[in-house]
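Objective 1.3, modelling of assemblies. Example input:
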Amino acid sequence: MNGRIFDTRVQWLKYKVLKEVAKHAYADTLQDAYREIPKAIIPDGAKATMRCCIYKERAVLGERVHSALGGDPENPNVIQVLDIACDECPVSGYTVGPDCRGCIAHRCEEVCPRGAITVEGQHAQIDHSKCVGCGKCASVCPYNAISKHTRPCENACKVNAIHMNEEKKAEIDNGKCISCGSCVYMCPFGAIVDRSFIVDVIKLLRASKNNRNYKVYAVVAPSVSSQFNYAKLGQVISGLKTLGFYNVIEAALGADMVSLSESRELAERGFLTSSCCPAFVDYIKKNFPAMTDKISSNLSPMGAVGKFVKATDPEAKVVFIGPCTAKKMEFQLPEVSPYVDGVLTFEELHALFEACEIDLTALEEDVLDNASYYGRIFARSGGLSDAVAQAFREQDIKDFEAKPVVCNGIEECKLALLKASRNLLPGNFIEGMACINGCIGGAGCLTHGPKDKNEVDEYGRLALEKTIESAAGITFGVSPEKE
Amino acid sequence: MNIYICVGSSCHLKGSYNIINLMKEALEKNSLSDKVNVSAAFCLGRCTDGVTIKVDDEIITGVSPDNFNDIFDKYVLKGNL
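Predicted structure (tokens):
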């Protein structure tokens, strides 16, 4: 495994399966995928390295093949649990470890509001039927002997959509899940997956007959600037064209369109929540239904640029490629589906390159430039607010002052929405990003790192157009609003 | 008459946005804004030949601010007559 390509070995495993599925799709042998792929990855005679035996490993791989082929069609959520891959992590909550010295002070016992702690045989014990998980004992223990054990998936899910069923397997409540993919990225066993549309995209590309029947456009999220560290961005663009995309367009152009329109809407309506992040929008609908009418009436940048592309070429097919699993839900919404025909993550794009044996580093550098600095910085937390402020300046909107509240991650979003619902928010525009750091923190990214934000800003500065209006001027009045 | 101006990355970096502005100005000056429909196109398939435009079905490459007036006369004004 090349450490530069992925953060974890779970991603590598997912990639191996996606790559094999893509190869089968191109060879028209998908009917053999279930049988052949697990054996190709874990050949006869291999030693088990991940599970109890290679047969279990192959069985889990079979489930991964299923997910790469599109997953469970009965489940409307794109985030799905692979039951047999869930390792039933312990759910013990607060536990006392071996560092407990059975001291005399018993601060833990004293501080516990529920009387759940007793000290027996010079060792503290927690009665889990009484413990409410407040954590006070852990914070007062001088030996740090008490620690919290929550399942990584539950811990990752900040909207409380994951719980354990009777068999101790993770279960997702679709009524709460916002499809952000946080659990997908955090599960150490890779038991939660985002189902893939990679086969649909391959079919779309092949049926275009080299873009003769219709043209397939790739719309690429600006967070691409922090991805594919092993190659240059221009080589990624060349790679996309080698895959058969007719043209590659920045989703950031849609962001430029949205920031002009959204700033006008904000001035008109006085209060707005952003509509770029589909997980944030879904969160409002599910948890703050009374605030649904405060959501900007604009499409997301993905939807806006898809709408524009289809205005220039009504036969066009548009595939969005980005860091986001929630986009896989968004593109199926009735107000978005006319403009976007498929969604891939960067992970899936990497698998597609490898399946087609495209060595990005050997390609010439192509160019990508459709958007302004402000459109490009939508990829990181705070970028959207900067863009809206700039749009106010450019459009000379003076009778209204925009006061954006930047919410980095869904927990900050929740807090701002709570305040806003009680008219206590010191601001009039909520920039909501479900992922920490914004799109560069998305679950579909190949890698996540501290330099990602700088890379997005640097990419933004390279844009030829310096203002939002000059970049969005070419859209000839195509409105990014929902219809 | 329909005019398409390539706004793909390659043409953009060679100055196609300027050509759009020149085209809009020229059409206005000649009172043709109502008769000629200008729109954007992502890639007209001639990425290496400078800014590319399409006037009805004819593709014209290498458009620049220097030769714009000649091209406008030849393809738009004459085609309109």
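Chain A has three domains: 1-69, 93-149, 198-475.
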